[in-house]
């Protein structure tokens, strides 16, 4: 597995988590305090979540995860704050599977 597969997943995990928190605050403001609109924020989070699902599925298929683990990683994108705990654990496990190209021999 290449490093860019893990990097794409990590970036989207954090971006999606931040937008989910923004969306959660907007929902609380809209329904709790009757202010604001959530249409644009929900659409942005929806598009980002779809990209996150694609990248997480790509990482999971290349890391040969069981289906249950893949579902847990995908669910982390739906639960506020969950991605901040799941992503580091997944990254540690996936880093062991990253194949780096052999370093070039030093020129003398």
UniProtKB/TrEMBL annotation:
It is a multi-pass membrane protein. The chain crosses the membrane at residues 12-33, 39-57, 69-86. It comes from the Bacteria. Keywords: Cell membrane, Membrane, Transmembrane, Transmembrane helix. Residues 6-92 form the DUF3817 domain. Its main location: membrane. It is found in: Cell membrane. The keyword Transmembrane helix applies. InterPro entries: DUF3817_TM. The keyword Oxidoreductase does not apply. Coiled coil: none annotated. Pfam families: DUF3817. NCBIfam families: integ_memb_HG. This is DUF3817 domain-containing protein. It comes from Streptomyces globisporus.
């Amino acid at each position: 597995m290449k490093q860019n597969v893990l990097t794409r997943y990590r970036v989207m995990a954090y971006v999606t988590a931040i937008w989910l928190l923004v969306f959660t605050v907007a929902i609380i403001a809209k329904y709790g305090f009757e202010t604001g609109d959530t249409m644009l924020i929900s659409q942005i989070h929806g598009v980002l979540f779809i990209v996150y699902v694609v990248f997480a599925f790509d990482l999971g298929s290349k890391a040969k995860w069981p289906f249950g683990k893949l579902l847990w990683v995908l669910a982390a994108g739906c639960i506020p704050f969950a991605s901040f705990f799941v992503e580091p654990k997944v990254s540690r496990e996936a880093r062991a599977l990253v194949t780096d190209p052999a370093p070039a021999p030093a020129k003398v």
